[in-house]
Specification:
Number of strands: 8
Family: Belongs to the triosephosphate isomerase family.
Pfam family, one: TIM
Shape: globular
CATH superfamily: Aldolase class I
EC number: 5.3.1.1
Strand content: 5-15%
Order of helices and strands: EHEHEHEHHEHHEHEEH
Pathway: Carbohydrate degradation; glycolysis; D-glyceraldehyde 3-phosphate from glycerone phosphate: step 1/1; Carbohydrate biosynthesis; gluconeogenesis
Number of domains: 1
Subcellular location: Cytoplasm
Low-confidence stretches: none
CATH architecture: Alpha-Beta Barrel
Mean pLDDT: 95
Amino acid sequence: MLPAPDAGLNTMFIGVSTKMYMGYAQSLAWLEHLVAEVDARPALAAGRVFPFVIPSFPVLPEAAQLVSGTPLVLGAQNCSWADGPWTGEVSPGMLAELGVGLVEIGHAERRRYFAEDEAMIALKVGAAVDAGLTPLLCVGELEVSEPATAADTVFRQIKAAVSGDWSVASHLVVAYEPVWAIGAPEPASATYVSRVTAALRDSLGQHGLGGLPIIYGGSAKPGLLPQLDGVSGLFLGRFAHDPTNFGRVLDEALAGRR
């Protein structure tokens, strides 16, 4: 299971989502290699670096068996806002029953292509928390901005996602993903990410949440994490389709937590 979100800045989260890039068999073969990367690093058992993996929905039952007994936490890429008569949706309660520990909510692609607004995201966050899942809340500005401006945009997204109830925010892991950096050749600069994160922590600190986990995503890859200040980990995408890259980032996280 994930640690409490207030576990402090010394806790790191390193995760990867496959989106819909892999088929069923390919996903499971890749996941076996990812498990091997995690098992090769017994220092993860100390619980200061938490790896997580978010495959496609159909993979979740078998993925739960593959990661069982390892430090890997299983995540889902989305959830419904409630149980009930919602054809094609997947409830947070069912995800929890499958062994899912966290659920991605509010990704830029969901906001843009599936018209998920702040009200819908808030409903999903509340439903996930009620089901005992950790919401991995994706937030980020559309265009390159001054760091303070970007941080203000992100802070407002977080506030909307919890409907202004900061007790709900205490359950989150925040994935800061500048929309303009998603799928780009390179991530946002380390200086930019660090400054946005620092400003965001100042705003969250006014509500007692300055230590909330904030991980960076957006073309994140090996070599970035050691350059970042105040960031609680990385949310990887296509660069971790090579499991050895995931292992390299785990090593960077472990090296920073000794």
